[in-house]
Amino acid sequence: MSLKIRLARGGAKKRPFYRIVVAESRFARDGKFVERIGSYNPMLAKDDAGRIVLDTERAKYWLSKGALPTERVQHFFAKAGLMGEPKRHEQTRQHLPKAKAQERAKAQADAAAKAAPAAA
Predict the structure, then answer these.
(1) Main-chain dihedrals φ then ψ at residue 69, nearest 5 degrees
(2) Residues 6+ apart with CB under 8 A from 26
(3) Angle at 68 between CA 70 and CA 77, to 5 degrees
(4) CB burial readout 11-32, b (16+ within 10 A) else e
(5) Average pLDDT over residues 11-35
(6) What average pLDDT does this structure show over 33-46?
(7) What is the arrangement of strands in the sheet containing 15-24, beginning at the earlier edge strand?
(8) Where would I find the H helices in 1-98?
(9) What one-character DSSP code corresponds to residue 84?
(10) Which terminus of the chain, N or C, has less C-beta within 10 A?
(11) Is the sign of the CA dihedral 22, 25, 27, 28 positive or negative?
């Protein structure tokens, strides 16, 4: 039985509310769960105390039993002091220009640099 500590969505359309639950990994996101250990309301202000409500004792218990938190729940646990910061994923390079476009841009910059001293 592989347990996950994850978010289960509730609330109305465009008004999300999440429960922090311990569930088996093969169960549906909003389906059956083992235990509810907190809640997360993203509609509240970031400094509001009710934005993240967490039962830290139960969270520690489930972590000791081997339950794996999702990335978002790891952030919540890190803020509560239950575990270290999750590792950040490196951003992909898809937003950068391709190789030939980079070569052209470098050639144009070189040409502009050579032309600037001649003009001065």
Answers:
(1) -80, 150
(2) 2
(3) 60
(4) eeeeeebbbbbbbeeeeeeeee
(5) 92
(6) 94
(7) 52-54, 35-40, 15-24, 3-12, 68-69
(8) 56-64, 71-80
(9) P
(10) C
(11) positive
